[in-house]
Amino acid sequence: xxxxxxxxxxxxxxxxxxxxxxxxxxxxxxxxxxxxxxxxxxxxxxxxxxxxxxxxxxxxxxxxxxxxxxxxxxxxxxxxxxxxxxxxxxxxxxxxxxxxxxxxxxxxxxxxxxxxxxxxxxxxxxxxxxxxxxxxxxxxxxxxxxxxxxxxxxxxxxxxxxxxxxxxxxxxxxxxxxxxxxxxxxxxxxxxxxxxxxxxxxxxxxxxxxxxxxxxxxxxxxxxxxxxxxxxxxxxxxxxxxxxxxxxxxxxxxxxxxxxxxxxxxxxxxxxxxxxxxxxxxxxxxxxxxxxxxxxxxxxxxxxxxxxxxxxxxxxxxxxxxxxxxxxxxxxxxxxxxxxxxxxxxxxxxxxxxxxxxxxxxxxxxxxxxxxxxxxxxxxxxxxxxxxxxxxxxxxxxxxxxxxxxxxxxxxxxx
Length: 415
Description:
With 415 residues, the protein is an alpha/beta fold. Helices cover 39% and strands 15% of the residues.
């Protein structure tokens, strides 16, 4: 049996500083956790608002489980669609100002389902090169033609769209890029989609709950990034100009377009689990009938929907949490300004510290862990070669003292 080949491949990954392994938590998710018997101050969770162990969510989950049990029992289209699921879909759609919404078990399954249901042979998908793996897998499985553009490069995307002669066109992008923490130029992306009659799928896994008024996500962001963003080394002279979008009542640009298909996850800032897609009613009905990752899987437990309804209320009331999170981001960026490793440009809770070498990133992560601070080292293929980094993530549950401790430890290790 070819087990030796598998082991040799694992050994090669280990020699390159790329071997992955798991650590076991023995406490609830929070900035202060216990991992395999040792306490840590953690900066590696996507629990951006600190809701994963919020007592109101725990109580809502308990109450919903008592009412509906702990399993859905079947797919949504068989007998697994509960009243709690329906209520959550209705409230999520209203929260992001879309006509309808559909729950998925994970964001990965949502992206697979949307892309596969909307495009196929004869169609074209246009994708940012730094998109999440779920979007990359989705476009490959769809069997559509794939065209990838340099990160944030609207000039190249415009050229690619102009070259597509027939079939449906779908532009797919992260809203907040999960490993860099920067923002997609959504107004410019939408302008190109309008010009070329394309859909725009926005993956807001790391923006929902954190960005925009009341945490409604990146479509409600009043601080749009400079447009367009360009991959490092690409000249701004390559910029393509388009007429500005109309100003809207909920931000600098009106992103309330039927062309936008919006996906957000519910296990990050929302603190629970799952994902949803919000779009025009005809799109949601199409997903119900054709999204394989929706049709052919058991529904998530209805009790989780009960917890998420409470989470949605906390998100809407969470302006103070988001203000505190922004203060922590400013504190961290100011405190790490003079390190030999640069912080990558990011105004979000994702603050990548660029190390470069795989082993050096692992070593720095290990040295922090020895000091009781847990920050994950991210290496290829998750990020491009030569850009290994510490992915520092902040939460509204962190204190200023927590951030100070991390700043001081990194300065000590830099000496």
